[in-house]
Amino acid sequence: MYKSCIFDLDGTIIDTIKSMTHSISLTMGNFGYAPVDEAHTKQFVGDGYRRLVERALLYSGDKELAHYEEALSIYEKTFRENCLYKVKAYDGMPELLTYLKEKGIKIGVLTNKGHERAVECVEAVYGKDFFDQIIGEGNGIKVKPDPAGALLMADRFLLPPSSCLYFGDTNTDMKTGRNAGMDTVGVTWGFRDRQELEAFQPKYIISHPSEIRHVFE
Predict the structure, then answer these.
(1) Which residues lie closer than 8 Å to 2 by C-beta, 6 or more apart?
(2) How far apart are CA 56 and CA 61, in angstroms?
(3) Given pLDDT bands bounded at 50, 70 and 90, which one contains residue 100?
(4) Residue 157 to residue 63: CA distance in whole angstroms
(5) In this predicted structure, what is the pLDDT of residue 45?
(6) What angle do CA 17, 20, 22 make, to 5 degrees?
(7) Residue 204 in 3-state DSSP?
(8) CA 20 to CA 40: how far, in whole Å?
(9) Domains and CATH numbers, the chain
(10) In the predicted model, is pLDDT for residue 204 greater than 90?
């Protein structure tokens, strides 16, 4: 029986794609580049904002990344101002999380989004102190797929990794769970397709949050 569920943020518990698409498009606009469409943003996110900016610049034509450092600074400011732009919970996720809490399952968020923005985003959608732990990028913790954050969360829960179930929507998440020695759940409502998730052989693949309830019954 799993005693904890650890969730990725973007594309897993909260639909944040519009906020990131809006922010990266505004950033690229500072250099005269066209907006980045939502489909490409979905491919660029997942490995932290530095990689998002790098990928967006390359896509926009800055092959030498001449604007990289300036773009990082602009994106940080822009996203700070727009991180809640049209964000919303995925259908069925509030119900699943409430169900888990009622079952006594510890729930946490582990994300490559900056820690302050992660807390702001999660609390805006789910309220303060809804999750037992939130860990975002920063404070010396390596970004996923490094398992450090997942292992730290398990340690804070006083649980072995084997009793934690890790949820995510990208290959980065599947690698994170595997690297941490946790069973993984691939979710198909996020930013990547089922084929990408299947390549990493998660314990479960679900297309709606309610589909994992049976594991806890």
Answers:
(1) 105, 163, 164, 165, 183, 215, 216
(2) 9
(3) very high
(4) 44
(5) 95
(6) 105
(7) strand
(8) 11
(9) 4-15+87-216 (3.40.50.1000), 17-82 (1.10.150)
(10) yes
Q: Where are the alpha helices (DSSP H) in the chain?
A: 17-29, 38-44, 49-60, 68-82, 93-102, 115-126, 148-156, 171-180, 194-198
Looking at residue 46, the DSSP 8-state letter turns out to be S
Alpha-carbon gap, residue 156 to 141, rounded angstroms: 14
pLDDT for residue 139 is more than 90: no
Residue whose structure tokens are 């930013």:
191
Q: What is the pLDDT of residue 82?
A: 97
**Coil/strand/helix, residue 72:** helix
DSSP 141: B
Q: Which of 193, 190, 188 is nearest to 206 (CA)?
A: 188
Residues 38-89 pLDDT 10s: 999 999 999 999 999 999 999 999 999 999 999 999 999 999 999 999 999 9
Helices 148-156, 171-180: axis angle to 10 degrees equals 60
How many alpha carbons lie under 13 Å from residue 217 in its C-beta half-sphere? 7
Determine how β-strand 14-15 pairs with β-strand 88-89: antiparallel
* Residue 18 predicted with pLDDT over 90: yes
Three-state SS sequence of 75-104: HHHHHHHHCCCCCEECCCHHHHHHHHHHCC
Rounded to 5 degrees, φ, ψ at 159 are -130, 150
Position 1 confidence tier, pLDDT thresholds 50, 70, 90: confident
Helix count (H) and strand count (E) of the chain? 9, 8
